[in-house]
Design the sequence.
């Protein structure tokens, strides 16, 4: 619904970050939030952590304190490695949930609906194209602004992976603004729930100002709440706990719903005319529904028999990207990271610092205080330069490990960059392949770990992740994210070897399908995770995890039953689908786009409801996305509304005005009317006038389709005779109103 005067568009720039502004609404003519104009009235948060998956649902209500509609920039930062799984906006008392559509179609529909004086909501990954979306963590949302003296409600749900590092896990909900001095909320409600298969030890809420109250705590569960009013958001909601489970043990959780709801139909576009006839049809009864599992294994090597061994000399070559794309926050955070990294080196270690392709010294030098200070002073005095030749910079770094005195033990090539190559090799797949080949040419005894600190919201994550797979690890730091926590985790892994030859085997192998790892690298004391499908209930399925650490073999194994029905861990289908999509996106980055890969990504995103570079959330009244099919003589119009609506009147395009009657048993408003027989086939609007309990009137548009002509279908084959067992290729052309067609042998 659109009211007079709502002529401005609110642009939401959601930058995914682990410690950034959450729900800050800034008037467009201001540099910071102004609570006298726009304020955060209510914030409700539900957090459910199930083993390594955190589902976070947030609803925020903003209030406009002025007598005119307000345009603003809405900043909502989400933690890294998240999947946006739900989105909704509210228009007065009406909640408008979003549906997943193919990205280009969603944008086209969004533009079309705007031109019809309707304001939908659009959430998409990236701000420009699919290529842009694949390579960074930026999301953008477009919705209507806040009316005069009115409110605007927004809902967002996301899933975040919670890793285990050195037997510890950490969850953070960013509340404290980093970019602005303060943000307050009139009412804050947070419900936190943690469940793990492993035993929980030393759970701690790390805040001092938020009134967190633990309602339940045992070995596998923690529940707590925050309830506050008129609160200054001066700290983040942060919790930490130790995973106390047997060393080298594997746990398996599963989910299977044999009767799931039918996947959302694609009911937009010309083919929507067949929707009414298809509505209510379920899945093919012959098609089995898969189950899903997650295997979690905590892997640790036994301590040396003679205690901790002494740390030998190591060589660290730091490649600092100082191109123009690294200016502002990226550069500041990179400086801080380099300083911390150099401070972590001992006097027995050696280092070199490359500013672009220029070296601090011709060869690595001892990490003595004088050398460290001189290197940092030279870096601070350097200037940003246009262009990034990552190939040349990486080559310069690898060349420094040709010294026979260098040992691979503890040594690393550390890259701090956004990965935005502009010269040399710039294609992700080709550059990654070139680096892997060059890295392998270095003798194994001197070959460094490739550790990557990805800086910025727009970092080329596919490329940087591929580079780090050459023996190292990647950590991402976002533009508004404080350095300390991520940097500490990164420095603890620089130069260290992850668990080698880590793999999962299942027996019988035919019991599972499409199994994907969720971690690129797992270190001693970390948790390895895999997700996969299974297709039938089965008892005594064996799971075994193997790896190598410092010459010691690691093994964890167990046996579990795959159930015919298990409904507890409902995050697993989307977790598996997300892993499958990531594998397909990596394939696209390396080998280029294929129609099959893109189609599968779209199908998975629609079925399991999450945003990808090829799909978007579109929030609009469902009647506009799914027109009602009306054939001459079919007299029924049905409308679902909010509970607050007490009256609905329909204004038809052929001059008829009809009140709708509320059917309490079906929770729907309905009227019967006659479509004139002389109406031509096509789409027609119906205007609805809705009145709520307070007497306020809303206007909404619904549409219906006249479809009296059956589709014209032509079928062609390449020949007229076939033998049993041969594949028949059918070429089918049909009129634009055709939605689906099926073929079967007689």
Sequence:
């Amino acid at each position: 619904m659109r009211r007079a005067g709502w002529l401005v568009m609110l642009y939401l720039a959601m930058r995914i970050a682990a410690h950034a502004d959450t729900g800050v609404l800034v008037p467009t003519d201001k540099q910071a939030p102004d609570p006298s104009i726009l304020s955060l009235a209510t914030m409700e948060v539900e957090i459910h952590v199930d083993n390594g998956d955190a589902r976070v649902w947030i609803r925020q209500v903003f209030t406009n304190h002025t007598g005119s509609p307000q345009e603003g920039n809405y900043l909502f930062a989400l933690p890294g490695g998240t999947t946006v799984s739900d989105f909704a906006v509210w228009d007065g008392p009406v909640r408008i949930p979003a549906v997943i559509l193919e990205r280009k179609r969603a944008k086209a529909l969004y533009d079309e609906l705007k031109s019809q004086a309707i304001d939908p909501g659009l959430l998409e990954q990236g701000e420009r194209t699919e290529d842009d979306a694949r390579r960074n963590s930026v999301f953008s949302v477009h919705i209507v602004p806040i009316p005069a003296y009115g409110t605007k409600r927004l809902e967002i749900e996301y899933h975040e992976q919670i890793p285990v590092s050195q037997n510890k896990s950490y969850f953070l909900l960013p509340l404290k603004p980093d970019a602005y001095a303060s943000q307050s909320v009139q009412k804050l409600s947070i419900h936190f729930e943690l469940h793990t298969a492993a035993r929980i030890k030393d759970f701690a809420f790390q805040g001092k100002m938020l009134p967190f109250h633990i309602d339940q705590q045992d070995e596998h569960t923690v529940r707590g709440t925050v309830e506050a009013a008129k609160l200054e958001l001066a700290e983040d909601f942060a919790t930490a706990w130790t995973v106390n489970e047997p060393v080298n043990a594997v746990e398996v959780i599963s989910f299977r719903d044999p009767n799931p709801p039918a996947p959302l139909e694609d009911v937009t576009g010309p083919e929507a005319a067949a929707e009414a006839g298809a509505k209510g049809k379920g899945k093919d009864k012959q098609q089995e529904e898969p189950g899903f599992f997650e295997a979690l294994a905590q892997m640790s090597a036994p301590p040396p028999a003679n205690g901790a061994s002494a740390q030998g000399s190591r060589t660290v070559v730091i490649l600092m990207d100082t191109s123009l794309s690294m200016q502002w926050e990226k550069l500041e955070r990179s400086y801080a990271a380099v300083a911390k990294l150099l401070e972590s080196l001992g006097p027995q270690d050696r280092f070199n610092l490359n500013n672009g392709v220029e070296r601090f010294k011709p060869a690595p030098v001892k990490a003595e205080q004088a050398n460290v200070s001189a290197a940092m002073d030279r870096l601070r005095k350097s200037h940003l330069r246009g262009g990034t030749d990552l190939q040349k910079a990486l080559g310069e770094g690898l060349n420094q490990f040709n010294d026979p005195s260098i040992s691979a033990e503890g040594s690393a090539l550390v890259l701090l960059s956004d990965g935005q190559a502009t010269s040399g090799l710039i294609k992700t797949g080709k550059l990654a392949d070139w680096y892997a080949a060059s890295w392998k040419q270095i003798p194994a005894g001197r070959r460094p770990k490739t550790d990557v600190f990805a800086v910025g919201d727009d970092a080329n994550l596919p490329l940087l992740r591929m580079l780090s797979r050459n023996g190292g690890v990647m950590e991402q730091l976002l533009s508004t994210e404080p350095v300390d926590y991520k940097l500490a985790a990164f420095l603890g892994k620089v130069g260290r070897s992850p668990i080698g030859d880590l793999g999962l085997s299942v027996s019988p192998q035919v019991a599972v399908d499409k199994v994907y790892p969720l971690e690129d690298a797992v270190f001693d004391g970390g948790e390895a995770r895999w997700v996969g499908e299974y297709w039938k209930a089965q008892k005594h399925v064996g799971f075994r995890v193997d790896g190598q650490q410092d010459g010691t073999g690691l093994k964890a194994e167990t046996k579990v039953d795959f159930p015919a029905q298990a409904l507890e861990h409902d995050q697993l289908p989307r977790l598996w689908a997300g892993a499958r999509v990531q594998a397909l996106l990596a394939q696209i980055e390396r080998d280029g786009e294929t129609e099959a890969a893109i189609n599968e990504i779209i199908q998975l995103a629609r079925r399991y409801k999450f945003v990808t570079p090829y799909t978007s959330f579109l929030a609009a009244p469902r009647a506009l996305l799914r027109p009602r099919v009306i054939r001459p003589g079919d007299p029924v119009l049905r409308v679902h509304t909010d509970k607050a609506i007490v009256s609905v009147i329909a204004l038809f395009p052929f001059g008829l005005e009809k009140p709708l009657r509320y059917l309490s048993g079906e929770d729907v408003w309905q009227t019967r009317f006659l479509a004139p027989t002389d109406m031509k086939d096509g789409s027609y609007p119906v205007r609805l006038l809705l009145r709520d309990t307070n007497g306020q009137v809303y206007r909404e548009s619904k549409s219906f389709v006249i479809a009296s002509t059956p589709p014209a279908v032509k079928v062609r084959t390449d020949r007229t005779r076939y033998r049993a067992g041969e594949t028949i290729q059918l070429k089918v052309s049909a009129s634009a109103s055709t939605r689906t067609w099926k073929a079967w042998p007689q």
Remarks:
- The mean pLDDT is 80.
